[in-house]
């Protein structure tokens, strides 16, 4: 039987939907307070929900009965510095518990890491799986949590765990709504005056789920794979989304000093309101950097044709218009 963590989240729900559409029975771990996504409600007969906190290993262990394959998608995502220590503890400890239980039950693991856990390539080169973070990204709390979580998987592999790691770039898709990467498109829809000079990797959530399943079903083990469809300049991304929405695209480049003012201002507003900052230092620094990724390793292992990102953008914009 298959176990999925994070099945109520963006990627986890899409992954689970793809599995059950293949008439596969799935057991999904969720918190008791989590809401089952609408996309999964039609498949109630094929999904067994198990309430457990990933930090409570004894309760989590009950979910592993009869499990042979585990997709670990669950993670706490936050850019707030106040969440640094609890988020790192939660993500790393939760992953460690999953790794230990997989070892105990001889289950194969597909761990969803992040492109944030991959080091940057030299300027002008594509980032590959061989790039490793040379210095701990002190201010990027999410990157720290994903890097240290991935290290738990490699620790398990050293102890005999059968596992594969995926490092998706920015995951987009209509199912995100206005949260996560969906905030990018909602911001464009509301009107943007500025664009930044950097670039990023983009991949549709359906493709990430499809690649995860293909890798799980392969013979590959003890490897990590970047999952990235295309590399896009932010300017092109914002312009394409603006055209889909029928709004004016941004026309002025935001210089680094302007981005610094923006994140500092957002931090002040967040402090006053108690809400998450709309823009932080890490995002500001990344906005002016070209971050482009190589997917050739993945394509050598599985037969994958990525959905064109322009198509994904159209689908997202149409969904947000509804």
TrEMBL record:
Superkingdom in the source lineage: Bacteria
Any Pfam family the entry gives: Epimerase
Chain ranges of the NAD-dependent epimerase/dehydratase domain: 2-218
GO molecular function, one term: aldehyde dehydrogenase (NAD+) activity
InterPro entries with a match to the protein in the record: Epimerase_deHydtase, NAD(P)-bd_dom_sf, NAD(P)-dependent_oxidoreduct
GO CC terms in record: cytoplasm
Name of the featured protein: NAD-dependent epimerase/dehydratase family protein
């Amino acid at each position: 039987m298959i176990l999925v963590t994070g099945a109520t989240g963006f990627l986890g729900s899409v992954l689970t939907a793809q599995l059950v559409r293949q008439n596969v029975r799935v057991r999904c771990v969720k918190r008791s307070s989590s809401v089952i996504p609408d996309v999964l409600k039609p498949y109630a007969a094929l999904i067994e929900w198990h309430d457990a906190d990933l930090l409570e290993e004894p309760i989590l262990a009950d979910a592993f009965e009869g499990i042979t394959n585990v997709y670990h998608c669950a993670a706490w995502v936050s850019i707030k510095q106040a969440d640094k220590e609890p988020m790192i503890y939660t993500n790393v400890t939760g992953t460690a518990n999953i790794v230990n239980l997989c070892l105990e039950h001889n289950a194969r693991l597909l761990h969803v890491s992040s492109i944030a856990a991959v080091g940057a390539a030299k300027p002008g080169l594509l980032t590959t799986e061989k790039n490793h973070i040379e210095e701990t990204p002190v201010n990027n709390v999410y990157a720290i949590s994903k890097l240290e979580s991935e290290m738990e998987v490699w620790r398990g592999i050293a102890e005999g765990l059968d596992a594969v790691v995926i490092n998706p770039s920015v995951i987009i898709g209509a199912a995100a709504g206005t949260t996560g990467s969906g905030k990018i498109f909602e911001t464009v829809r509301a009107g943007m005056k500025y664009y930044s000079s950097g670039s990023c990797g983009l991949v549709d959530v359906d493709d990430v789920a499809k690649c995860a399943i293909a890798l799980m079903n392969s013979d590959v083990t003890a490897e990590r794979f970047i999952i990235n469809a295309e590399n896009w300049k932010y300017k092109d991304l914002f312009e394409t989304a603006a055209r889909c929405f029928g709004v004016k695209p941004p026309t002025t480049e935001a210089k680094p000093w302007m981005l610094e003012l923006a994140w500092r201002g957002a931090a002040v507003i967040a402090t006053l309101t108690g809400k998450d900052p709309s823009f932080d230092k890490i995002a500001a620094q990344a906005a002016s950097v070209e971050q482009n990724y190589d997917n050739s390793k993945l394509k050598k292992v599985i037969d994958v044709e990525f959905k064109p990102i322009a198509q994904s953008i159209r689908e997202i914009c149409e969904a947000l218009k509804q």
